Amino acid sequence: MKKVISILLALCMVLSLCAFALADEETKTVGISMPTKSLERWNRDGEYLQEQFEEAGYEVELTYSDNDITQQNNDVANLIADGVDLLIISAINGESLTQTLTDAEDAGIPVIAYDRLIMNTDVVSYYVSFDNYTVGVLQGQFVIDTLGLDLEDTSKTYNIEFTAGDPADNNAGYFFNGAMDTLKPYIDAGILNVPSGKTEFEQVATPSWSTDTALENMQNTLASYYSDGTVLDVALCSNDSTALGVAQAISSDYAGDNQPLVTGQDGDIANLQNIVDGKQTMTVYKNVSDEAIVTLELSKIMLAGGAPAEELLDSLDVEAAYDTESYDNGTGIIPSYLLVPFVITADNLDLLVDTGLYEWDADNQYLVSTAETT
Ligand code: GAL
């Protein structure tokens, strides 16, 4: 009898070890590479992605690379060496990962370009982002609507300055072009005037999307073209980190008694407070929690060996489009899932509360992130 019990115990141990081994074998690991923590939105992206994937039963390795290209190549190389089953990468510089990603290709690790397209590598299977050109169009159209511009009425001229994003970020050109294409007819008609003359992306780009650099650039522009009392009507900024610097420059260095219209993107907390205080006029909001949901559903199918197309969106309560025309990464069109951004002003801040990601502070004056209070 004792012999039977010891055999049964040994059998149980072997079966449980097999179960662990099998479970371990089945548990896929996802490597997530975010560019930095210094730009607010990426903290939310990383948090939501990790939350979504872990709740779905995946192991997650999440890295942040301090906006340092070498660091991000090392981080991605380490994720590949760790043998992750899938890579989700928001590139600091879309041109900078080509070599590192050849190792992913050799290891058979598929790659999702997250939010920012990764260039010159065919290892990228999909791109998940927002309609980046439309972000710029929304900013440009907001200026037209708010100022009541009419191409038939050239009796009034408004002065505008542009602040674009990081030239290393493939998105930045789309944001700028969307806005410029929308506003150029009014510039050509002399209704919008650019006193600095800076209307090319390269002239108004902001490396690393730096708030300090945007502040310094706008201070220089104000000193050079507005110290004679010229009125600044619009400061079109491609995102909130640059809008924060521009708003600071306007507060400290602009002599006019009007509040220029200031645009942004992302719904960063400091900028939402500036919107309440009237120092920024709008931001283009992108629900990055939804971006994480689309990325998770796409990843599930990819990790199960599938190659989804438009039908992926049928099962999701997320407004997005499947695009197979817009984003060529240098090796060909990358099939993309593009979510839909929308305009936030002081009049509709409650739409952000409705996302569940923001709430009013104790004084019911400013919005704070719910993540901060949980
Ligand atoms: C872009 C991103 C924007 C943005 C910027 C700075 O690629 O799409 O949401 O604010 O980076 O992080």
Task: Name the CATH class of the largest domain.
Answer: Alpha Beta
User: So, CATH architecture of the largest domain?
Assistant: 3-Layer(aba) Sandwich
Euclidean distance between termini CA atoms: 56 Å
CATH superfamily of the largest domain: Response regulator
Outline:
The chain has helices at residues 2-26, 40-55, 69-81, 98-106, 132-147, 170-188, 201-204, 211-225, 240-253, 269-277, 288-303, 350-354, 370-373, and strands spanning 29-34, 59-64, 86-89, 111-114, 124-130, 158-163, 192-193, 234-237, 261-262, 283-285, 320-323, 336-339, 342-344, 358-360, 367-369. It is α/β, with parallel strands linked by helices.
Explained architecture:
This protein has 374 residues and is α/β, with parallel strands linked by helices. It folds into 2 domains: 27-130 and 287-340, 3-Layer(aba) Sandwich (Rossmann fold); 133-265, 3-Layer(aba) Sandwich (Rossmann fold), CATH 3.40.50.2300. The protein is 44% helix and 16% strand. It contains 13 helices and 15 strands. It has helices at residues 2-26, 40-55, 69-81, 98-106, 132-147, 170-188, 201-204, 211-225, 240-253, 269-277, 288-303, 350-354, 370-373; strands at residues 29-34, 59-64, 86-89, 111-114, 124-130, 158-163, 192-193, 234-237, 261-262, 283-285, 320-323, 336-339, 342-344, 358-360, 367-369. It has a 7-stranded mixed beta sheet, with helices on both faces. Helix 2 (40-55) packs across helix 11 (288-303) and helix 8 crosses helix 9. The mean pLDDT is 94. Bound molecules: beta-D-galactopyranose (GAL). Beta-D-galactopyranose binds at residues 39, 41, 115-116, 165, 169, 171, 209, 239, 241, 265-266.
